[in-house]
């Protein structure tokens, strides 16, 4: 079962609702989010906009960080770097975030975003950044 | 008047339409995009999701790069780093992208995203990255 | 005159001594460091190693941040992104660091590194990152 | 045995010689570099300067990329992001670079830098960036 405070936080993000994103797994410094590739979030070539991969990767990384923070804290992104590996095309995007180092205040995170077309997986983006508890 | 190939490319990005973003200015290695802060793109605290600032900054930077590329080229993001300076709250977001160095294949770009509440401006995000002509 | 606590901190960095770097200016969220291009710090093509531009830009950014921190604090780099614009060749490298936003704990910084050959200036690197007071 | 073109390139980097760095392993998109923590490359608190971790991680990532490039190519860093996880103190630094995605022109890379004090290992830095064949 998913930690209720993270499920609640996720449910309050209207951005996740607009992207039809679902929180699949979260806990112990790891978080998985799935979302379909929607017609309304594309760039000019018909792939998902880089901002979609960023948004899903950033959220997965953020909730991975929050899963290790004390009760009552919220998480915010300090900074995030994304390398785009291939255009985000297909049926679904899977974002997996994980904690690299949980410090007292800052948490270093990483995320991968993969596009699925049927059974075929293609790496779309790699993210590395910093989260802060507030 | 805005370069028609950039106006066309922008118009084909359904992501820009969904964000109600408007292309305000583009040319000579510079691009300005405005968008309202919409209810459907928020994080859990009621500010715009970091992904919105990323998306607008990335697009402004991308079109700044494209404005210096030869006719017939398209632009893609290789990588982008964003530092978040304050929560994106208010009425509007203004993203300004500019080219730092236009190379033969790679273009180094920068973007700033500012939130406006009435006349008050607040810096929201600073981006630095690499675009490629394809 | 340069703030003595920053001059002292700089003088304690043996890395700066090895690079023959000099603290030229510091104050009000800005710092300038100059260093010659030395034979012992090159990559395989005879330019300065990317690590030299990184080191000078990172230090200039760090002291720019420290100049706005309360007495008694020290500064550490949380993260730094560097885009390399052209090979670092010539006589001297000038690094200019500046504060973009000084927060209560985190300071967002930027730096530029320029190579000088006689009177000719060439942009070598652009950095953007986060400093923390400790 | 280490690919001679990579051993040669490494040997021509005076920066690696100054850092007393040794090329331990390279091949198939992976490269390991070891270096002692030297007195002449410290920041103001007696740890290695962030520029040392950057330099070793960047070089390990670069040679990992080069190991997958065609004969006759050289490698240059386009951009690199480093998150610093803890101060670089101890006896040795080990940098491990690996290729995430080798494209036709651009190669996405990652590197980790670890400090060793006797048998104790501590993660020092995590890097993610882009290399180009020239």
How would you explain this protein's 3D organization?
4 copies of one chain form a homotetramer. With 134 residues, the first copy, chain A, is α+β, with helices and mostly antiparallel strands. Chain A has a single domain, classed as Hotdog Thioesterase (Thiol Ester Dehydrase, Chain A, Roll), CATH 3.10.129. Chain A is built from 3 helices and 6 strands, in the order ααββαββββ. Chain A has helices at residues 4-12, 14-18, 50-66; strands at 22-27, 30-36, 75-84, 92-102, 106-117, 120-133. In chain A, strands 1-2-4-5-6-3 form a 6-stranded antiparallel β-sheet, covered by helices on one side. In chain A, 55% of the residues are buried. The B-D interface holds B 78-79, 81, 105-106, 129-130, 132 and D 78-79, 81, 105-106, 129-130, 132.
Key phrases:
homotetramer; 134 residues; alpha+beta; Thiol Ester Dehydrase, Chain A; 3 helices
Order of helices and strands of chain A: HHEEHEEEE
Spatial strand sequence of the major β-sheet of chain A: 1-2-4-5-6-3
**How does CATH name the architecture of chain A?**
Roll
Helix content of chain A: 10-25%
As for the number of domains of chain A, it is 1
Strand count, sense and closure of the main sheet of chain A? 6 strands, antiparallel
Computed Rg of chain A: 14 Å
Shape category of chain A: globular
Give the strand tally of chain A.
6
CATH topology-level fold name of chain A: Thiol Ester Dehydrase, Chain A
Task: Briefly say what this structure is.
Chain A has 134 residues and is α+β, with helices and mostly antiparallel strands. Chain A contains 3 helices and 6 strands.
């Amino acid at each position: 079962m998913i930690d209720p405070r993270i499920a609640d936080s996720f449910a309050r993000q209207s951005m996740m609702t607009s992207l039809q994103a679902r929180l699949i797994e979260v806990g112990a410094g790891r978080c998985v989010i799935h979302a379909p590739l929607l017609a309304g979030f594309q760039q000019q070539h018909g792939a998902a906009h880089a901002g979609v991969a960023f948004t899903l990767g950033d959220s997965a990384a953020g909730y991975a960080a929050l899963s290790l923070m004390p009760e009552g804290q919220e998480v915010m992104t300090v900074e995030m770097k994304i390398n785009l590996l291939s255009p985000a095309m297909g049926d679904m995007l899977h974002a997996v975030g994980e904690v690299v180092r949980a410090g007292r205040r800052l948490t270093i995170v990483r995320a991968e975003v993969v596009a699925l077309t049927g059974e075929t997986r293609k790496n779309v983006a790699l993210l590395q950044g910093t989260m802060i508890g507030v």
